[in-house]
Amino acid sequence: MPVSSPPSSQGASSTSDSAAAGSSPISRLNNIASHIAPKMASTTNFPSDVVPQAPEDPLFGLMAAFRADESPDKVDLGIGAYRDDNAKPWILPVVKKADEILRNDPDLNHEYAPIAGIQSFTSKAAELMLGADSPALKEKRSASIQTISGTGAVHLGALFLAKFFKGNRTVYVSNPTWANHHQIFSNVGIPTKQYPYFDKKTKGLDFEGMKNAIKDAPERSIILLHPCAHNPTGVDPTLDQWKELAEVIRSKNHFPFFDSAYQGFASGNLARDAASVRYFIEQGFELLIAQSFAKNFGLYGERAGCFHAVTAPGPDAQTTISRIASQLAILQRSEISNPPLYGARIVSLVLNDAKLFAEWEDNLTTMSGRIKDMRNSLRAKLEELGTPGTWNHITDQIGMFSFTGLTEEQVMRLRKESHIYMTKNGRISMAGLNTKNIDYFAKAVHAVVSSSS
């Protein structure tokens, strides 16, 4: 005879609780989790003394402050991006044409690019920077890897140096330089030191200070150089000064690393803006180059760039560059696996078509020419107003940026009183000036400089 268990008050209570809670397994798990969650939340592997709050990136913080400003008079001179005379982003006409060709290509697909990138892009990027008749190309002692714009190219070079460079593992950068240089190298364990570059008195190049610091650096140091349109100062060595620097660098067996973000955008002439790089290669230097197409194609968000390694001439040069290329491919594979397609396809179309290339050169003349016009106009207006100081440096400098010589206090006053936004060191993007705001800017600068004198 089956024996039945008597009803239990405990069981009845459990049944009642289950019903109230929804009785599902998920509900019961949530009920358990609610009791243990406070204990789990009280511990972390990343307390503030291990992972402190990082400071906001100054440039992107400046952009956010500009966007939040509701003044109709506000002027953005911070961001390093080309703007037309209406303060609008300018899509290069040649980029529009290349985009149309791409979209109408029936064979277009979105498969992976090779690890080293699109060969039609990297080969022409190398020709653009090194020169089509470069001895490095003729002797097949260069390797090119497509990167995530210029930042990615500098990073790839930093990774390669961190892993393989056996000289003095310090990168010497100009004072000042693009702020990201310090972060990129420190993140891979390579410290940076500075060499003098900008002369605050003349607002030009401190060439002797630069040359002597490079001469005094320990043998086989890494020297980071801007081939044209120095960021942030807009001050470049002359070709004769580049030749002197090459002699000093050779005498100390230093290793040059060029970061080229503005080829064709500085003078409007592609060959002139690459002259320093080409001279060093002609002199037989082993070197690295980071190349960006953000500025000169207006492809800021598409991140099209290239990294080039050039080895010294000699009987083993091709074997050496083959080994270097193989290691770069491994580094690339572990970082991004395969580079993005769109920006590189646009650039490749233009660089491989004579008609489109000529139109691109015309677009470069338009951009560089407008910036030169703004330099001439700004200097003239400041001098007409009788603004204290000398302003010839505005036209002596070149490229997107100008180091105005304004102090941090004056910069902050301009922001507060006139809604004009620039970096605290007084660097302005000349592309942010136009015929509609240049009078306003010049008068505002005149006011703060005059009251500070």
UniProtKB/TrEMBL annotation:
GO terms for molecular function: L-aspartate:2-oxoglutarate aminotransferase activity; pyridoxal phosphate binding. Its cofactor is pyridoxal 5'-phosphate. GO terms for biological process: aspartate biosynthetic process. Residues 73-444 form the Aminotransferase class I/classII large domain. One of its GO terms (cellular component) is cytosol. Residues 1-25 are annotated as: Disordered. Its EC number is 2.6.1.1. Signal peptide: none annotated. The keyword Phosphoprotein does not apply. Keywords: Aminotransferase, Pyridoxal phosphate, Transferase. PROSITE patterns: AA_TRANSFER_CLASS_1. InterPro entries: Aminotransferase_I/II_large (IPR004839), Asp_trans (IPR000796), NHTrfase_class1_PyrdxlP-BS (IPR004838), PyrdxlP-dep_Trfase (IPR015424), PyrdxlP-dep_Trfase_major (IPR015421), PyrdxlP-dep_Trfase_small (IPR015422). It catalyses: L-aspartate + 2-oxoglutarate = oxaloacetate + L-glutamate. It comes from the Eukaryota. In eukaryotes there are cytoplasmic, mitochondrial and chloroplastic isozymes. Belongs to the class-I pyridoxal-phosphate-dependent aminotransferase family. Homodimer. This is Aspartate aminotransferase. It comes from Emericellopsis atlantica.
